[in-house]
Amino acid sequence: MNFLIEGFDYLIYFLRPAVFGLAAVTAVVCAGDYLVRTKRINPFSPIARFMRQKVDPLMAPIERSVVRAGGLPSSAPLWSLAAVVLGGIVGLSLLSFLRDQFASLALAGQGGPRGMVTLALAWGFGFLRLALIVRVLSSWIRVSAYSKWIRWSFTVTEPMLAPLRRILPPLGMIDVSPIVAYLGIGLLQWAVFGLI
């Protein structure tokens, strides 16, 4: 298990500068493409020709998505840069999360059955919190509860939230039951871990 954790450490160590370098190169390329698209650089210059021949075909899918969403084609480079930066952050965060979970598993394995039960409970409480967060975020961006990506969070959280909604009145248009449920999960976790 330690070999796997060290592997994650090395991978994260080498990917961080690579992601930063990719983001820096993408920023320079996107800035150049943006300047060409907004005609701040002569459209007949070698830079503009290079951007139209090499970079624009790579940004075509993003440009189509931006235009379909009602945006301007000249903002495609900015969205491309945002996608690279956010993708790098999410990817590195996911690798760090996996590394931490393997480290927790190794530590729980050393604690015997009690350590494994504690880890399983911690993962269960973490899953409930994640389901609540996904449900709240999906309501903010108006994703359907029947979407295949979101449905699981409604299935998991509805048994907690339905009784709370009957007890707690909404504050205007704000449903406070997810906040109370989140705090309740924290209190329950504290009580359960206090007993173990």
Could you provide a short overview of the structure?
With 196 residues, the chain is an all-alpha fold. It is built from 6 helices and no strands.
Description:
- The structure is a single chain.
- It is built from six helices and no strands.
- The chain folds into two domains: 110 residues, no CATH class; 85 residues, no CATH class.
- The mean pLDDT is 89.
- The radius of gyration is 24 Å and the shape is flat.
- The chain starts with a helix and ends with a helix.
What labels describe this entry?
single chain, 196 residues, mainly alpha, 2 domains, flat
Number of domains: 2
Structural class category: mainly alpha
Percent of residues in helices comes to over 70%
Any idea what the shape is? flat
Helices and strands in order:
Elements: H1 2-37, H2 46-68, H3 76-110, H4 112-140, H5 151-167, H6 177-195
Helix pairs in contact: 1-2, 1-3, 2-3, 3-4, 4-5, 4-6, 5-6
